[in-house]
Amino acid sequence: MTDGEAPTGAWDEGPFRLPNRTALVTGAGRGVGEGIARALAAAGAAVAVNDLHPDRADRVVAEIAAAGGRASAVPFDVTDAEGLAVALERIRETFGGVDILVHNAGIPDGGSTMVRFGDMPSEAWRQQIELNLVATMRLVQAVLPHQVARGWGRIIHISSGASSRGLALGVGAYGAAKAGSEALMRHLGVEYGPVGITANSLALGIMTGLEDSGSGLLQRLVQSVPIRRLGTGADVGAAAVWLSSAAGGFVNSLASHLTGGTACGR
Ligand SMILES: NC(=O)c1ccc[n+]([C@@H]2O[C@H](COP(=O)([O-])OP(=O)(O)OC[C@H]3O[C@@H](n4cnc5c(N)ncnc54)[C@H](O)[C@@H]3O)[C@@H](O)[C@H]2O)c1
């Protein structure tokens, strides 16, 4: 691997290994979440692969297992409080509790309504708050008792540059919800650091998937990134492994911007 390439996920060296750890990754049936689930599994964690769509979660689980990793599908809607409680109970039975929570599901099924805030129907902005803030709060409260009892835990929120930068893209509600979860991570890291739990956000920008938006856009996007490539799920997975590992134990209450050096969020 050279500096210009995305990581491959061969995390077989000591301080980055995650033996005896269980991770829950939400929205891991494709895209960024899939990259995170694969990387955590490659580092040795048992991974509960969540998605709204069971077939997506099943595919990722099968591919992790084929690569020699441990994973189980836990399809549920993270915005449904009851579904979440039932799923968390199942994860407790199967894996003994969630040591590493990665809340990644953040794009509503069917896509986001992207219009100026004044024109956004209240159902659309409420959906963003439910998925990107309320679900974070519920998930955190669901996993904390186990993490506190174990005296170890990792909470990672997948955010966006829209949390800290004004953009004329119709993402005001999305950015506000992401910023709320980033603030929660900062407070959690301080409240729970003393009992062995860290909480951080990874704010993404310029990721693969954007290139589908129109012809010629890909070239322009790549040229806008100082390292001259788009980010991948594997890049985010590498950062999640680092934050989850012993090597990342001093990183706490932080929002890191993964953008290849573009100015998102600065
Ligand atoms: N891709 C990007 O360019 C980009 C940029 C900045 C931030 N992000 C953030 O990264 C995260 C992942 O984005 P992505 O592009 O991989 O998304 P995606 O839409 O490709 O995949 C997300 C997955 O989440 C699942 N999902 C959606 N709602 C769910 C729910 N209520 N419960 C459970 N699962 C649900 C979907 O079924 C889908 O499989 C999001 O939090 C997003 O805000 C992405």
TrEMBL record:
Source organism, top-level taxon: Bacteria
UniProt cross-references to CDD domains, sorted A to Z: SDR_c (cd05233)
Entry protein name: SDR family oxidoreductase
Family: Belongs to the short-chain dehydrogenases/reductases (SDR) family.
InterPro entries in the record: NAD(P)-bd_dom_sf (IPR036291), SDR_fam (IPR002347)
Organism name: Blastococcus carthaginiensis
